[in-house]
Amino acid sequence: MAGPAVARDRSSSRRANLGMVLRLLRDEGPRSRARISEDTGLPKATVSNLTAELLEGRLIREGEAERDRGTVGRPGQAVEIDGSGVHGIGAEINVDYVSLLALNLKGEVTAEQRIPFDVRAAGPDATLDTTAQLVAREIDALRRDGGRVAGVTLATPGATDLATGTVRFASNIGWRDVPAIAGLRERLGPGAPEMHLENDAKLGALAEYVTASAAGVRDLVFVTGQTGVGVGIIAGGQLLRGTRGHAGEVGHLQLVPSEQLCACGRRGCWETTIGRGALLRYAADPGDLVWDPMVDLERRLAELRERARAGDARTLEALRRIGDNLAPGLALLADILNPRLIVLGGHFAFFGEYLLDGVTARVRERVMAPDAGGCEIVLSGTGLTGTARGGALLALDAVYQDPTSAMTPDRH
Amino acid sequence: MAGPAVARDRSSSRRANLGMVLRLLRDEGPRSRARISEDTGLPKATVSNLTAELLEGRLIREGEAERDRGTVGRPGQAVEIDGSGVHGIGAEINVDYVSLLALNLKGEVTAEQRIPFDVRAAGPDATLDTTAQLVAREIDALRRDGGRVAGVTLATPGATDLATGTVRFASNIGWRDVPAIAGLRERLGPGAPEMHLENDAKLGALAEYVTASAAGVRDLVFVTGQTGVGVGIIAGGQLLRGTRGHAGEVGHLQLVPSEQLCACGRRGCWETTIGRGALLRYAADPGDLVWDPMVDLERRLAELRERARAGDARTLEALRRIGDNLAPGLALLADILNPRLIVLGGHFAFFGEYLLDGVTARVRERVMAPDAGGCEIVLSGTGLTGTARGGALLALDAVYQDPTSAMTPDRH
Predict the structure, then answer these.
(1) In B, residues 128-157, which contact A (CB 8 Å cutoff)?
(2) Which one is predicted more confidently, B291 or A74?
(3) For the domain that residue B100 is a member of, what is the CATH number?
């Protein structure tokens, strides 16, 4: 029931056509101008002008002569996405780290970094200082190599306000009404790229959707496995944000009997029974290496996994409890959203070999639709970088929607 | 991250343009050809051809000369949607009635009927007989008046399979794997219009979205108030179906402590604490008039409302319990989906004066996002006809997407 697609002026239709060509090359691969004309229905002369513009803007480059593809292919000089020109950056602030990942327009990783950081203890100002340094260094490095940065997406847990760039309420890092984007802009100064704020789970979902959509999946739920737990929902191929961008706030649902105090001030929130805090509490006592926020998270999780593999009873029991507490919430999400995939991230993916079978069986038992509505539970392959990767993708998506946004020189 | 919009041939682009013009007239009202050309960006000659086709197909008609609108308006003969030519029919099978509603292309109600009917007791064959008779009579009546029927949407509760027209599992009417559309087709014979099956809650959501979208709402959840309870979700202006169309199956979630046996065979499902069965159980004993499935539902609900208005303690207590049990589920939906509106249908709307304030207060307390994420709870204005209305709208939407589908003569 969408309204008419209205192209009110020549320049907006040019932008739309540039975007259509660029997305075609991203989604379907390199091809000749003749083939682009066939695929898009645009006249050959128009395609020729559009590709010339994209070449000049260094968003695409001349590729190899296209080979015959089956019987319909025709030879011709192909064009392809140029990975060297434009980059998107995702930066993530989470409970015990600040991280960054950059992708070029082809989706290749061009930078990746994670710093152990006690965000709650440091407070917003010091955290934004560190984040800004990380981002500024990367922008400088990319620009030094002749690249342009299309945008930066900052990810935080909790309720975030896209329009104003404010973290409204993120209980696990103790932030309330922190104008994070304004803070970053101030620290990065003029000449900084476009910056946006988004919730960590939504960006994780976007990162998963790149792989999943290539396999035809249009509906998925990504579950973060952090200190807090949230979900990012892709429904019918679209990121579900909700009216104020707060969709996916499942961490504080009351799903499992528990009296555990939550960072939000209530008791028994779901994330206190499945989040990283629960895993650590179940598996080890304070003072254990795995509790130390200054040790890199991946190392701490690897330590726990070694214990599990060595058959340590307490670790295995901890993982069993996590799985038992996780299943009812996943079943509920499957009943409400009927996704094709539920993708488990963070520590759920890290310990997938101990969780997946049990959780899958219990979800299948509970979901009302026959055959669990066709829903499959899988492990994320993005490790701890999914959120930052989703942020970088979102920054690049602005280029794919309107390539002209990346065709003007950087303001530095 | 949508792919390119590709128009592969002239006839598909003609269909797309016919649809664009028709939707423009529906959404923005009557206007001259010159104005259509401005609004769509299509050349005037193209608009002239398109409107000629739509006129010939009786989807639009010549209207009045357009008046000046502000300073930019230009006089000219306006065209407008023709309500007389094409109709959509929605038919609903629910626990204790079979109903039908027809809309013309302008969205005006052209027929409405509800028959008290004990669907579970009658079984699928007898129920489909009655439904087919109701639909056949209406098709005949509309055709006798020179109208065409663009399509029929059949609504049932439970898990439905859009592609095959099969009711997979609808516990409250006792149907499992009933090929409902094939059954209707067989009964209506050749010459019957297009028929599709959809879940009642999704169609209710579509009906609500017509009003809500006019007020700028893009995200809403419609909650059916029937014997069973399901939700229909509109997210970012799109109906959320899920991978197999089973999204919104909330009736069997375990949200409120209860040992009540559910029609699905489990105990404590949410709908056993808020559905019409719960309301009747809380408010009256078996044998009471309000329990009688052969008395029209609206009359039974009206009887209960009179008791409430007269201050009957048991009725008021029943409504208080319904509200108490309803709130946690609505809060959960608000946390997950962050809708702008939650629209209460069926008996929730009927008894809204006793439910709304309490439920709203409790939802606001529970939802994690500040200010309940901007979510407002409202009562449906469509009474018991929302689902059938949504079905009729869906049938007509096919015409708005591809007007040529309704421009060939009926096959009778």
Answers:
(1) none
(2) B291
(3) 3.30.420.40
Which domain, by its residues, includes B23?
Answer: 10-81
3-state secondary structure of B382: coil
Query: Which 156-185 residues of chain A touch chain B by CB within 8 A?
Result: 159, 168-169
- Residue that terminates a domain, selected from A48, A81, A114: A81
Crossing angle between the packed helical segments A10-28 and A33-40, to the nearest 10 degrees: 110
Is B214 an 8 Å CB contact of chain A?
Answer: no
* Distance in Å from the first CA to the final CA of chain B: 44
**pLDDT of A6 over the 60 cut:** no
A369/B contact by beta carbon, under 8 A: yes
- Please tell me which of the candidates A24, A169, A242 has its beta carbon nearest to residue B370: A169
Whether B328 and B283 share a structural domain: yes
Q: Is the dihedral of CA B97, B226, B377, A326 positive or negative?
A: negative
Closest CA to A407 of A14, A10, A5, A89: A14
Q: Give the pLDDT score at B75.
A: 54
Decide the pairing of beta strands A31-32 and A77-81.
antiparallel
Number of domains composing chain B: 3
Residues B180 and B140 in one domain: yes
Q: Which residues of B touch A250 (CB under 8 A)?
A: 335-336
Region of poorest pLDDT, from A10-19, A76-85, B2-11, B139-148: B2-11
pLDDT tens digits for range A194-230 = 999 999 999 999 999 999 998 999 999 999 999 999 9
User: For position B253, what pLDDT does the model report?
Assistant: 95
3-class DSSP state for residue B250?
coil
Chain A closest-CA separation from residue B158 CA (Å)? 9
Chain B interface mutation, best of A15, A336, A377, highest count of B Cβ atoms under 10 Å: A336
Read off the pLDDT of residues A270-329 as tens digits, 9 standing for 90 and up.
999 999 999 999 999 999 999 998 888 899 999 999 999 999 999 999 999 999 999 999
Taking residues A351-369, report their average pLDDT. 96
**Residue B67 confidence (pLDDT) above 70:** no
Contact between B268 and B260 under an 8 Å Cβ cutoff? The reply is yes
State the smallest CA–CA distance between residue B47 and chain A in angstroms: 14
Residue A267, strand partner residues: A261
